[in-house]
Specification:
By secondary structure, the chain is an alpha+beta fold. It has a single domain, classed as glutathione-dependent formaldehyde- activating enzyme (gfa) (Alpha-Beta Complex), CATH 3.90.1590. Helices cover about 15% and strands about 30% of the residues. The chain starts with a strand and ends with a helix. About 25% of the residues are buried. The structure holds zinc ion (ZN).
Length: about 150
């Protein structure tokens, strides 16, 4: 499948938690979070696969129906309002840089972390890391979710 995404992400996380390791079969995942309406499927279809999330609710992984590549995820906190797009599926994966490396406490022991990107043993408080305009986009989705959307 192919998709188009518009604008800058709200935040980009490189997550080394145990679930991301298991679900990707790799050291970690790199997700860019966008409002769902910024992402348009332009070709093909996705299948949905529900797996556990760290917070206990359902984490839905959407995969290319043809090749099975994981394209994006919906997490309990934002529901369908916001999607975590796998950065490695972009035409230019190097265009996005993580804002944070998270869950380093559970990283594979031989992994080293990049210079110049904040690292967190678990996670971080968005208000302490994100520029105001990105935080506002996130809080808009959080409020909509609280109001029962998504
Ligand atoms: Zn994770």
């Amino acid at each position: 499948m192919r998709y188009r995404v518009e604008g800058d992400p709200i935040f980009v996380n490189n997550c080394h938690c145990a679930l991301c390791q298991r679900q990707t079969g790799s050291t970690s995942v790199v997700n860019a979070f966008y409002e769902n309406e910024r992402i348009t499927v332009t070709q093909g279809e996705m299948t949905e696969h529900v797996v556990p999330s760290g917070s206990g609710g359902p984490h839905t992984i959407c995969r290319c129906a043809q090749c099975g590549t994981a394209i994006l995820s919906y997490y309990p906190r934002l529901g369908r309002l916001g999607a975590g797009l796998r950065v490695g599926t972009l035409d230019d994966p190097g265009a996005l840089r993580p804002d944070a490396v998270i869950f380093t406490a559970s990283a594979m022991p031989w992994v080293s972390f990049p210079e110049g990107i904040p690292t967190f043993e678990q996670t971080y408080v968005p208000a302490e890391l994100l520029p105001p305009e990105r935080l506002e986009r996130l809080m808009t989705m959080v409020e909509r979710r609280k109001a029962g959307e998504g």
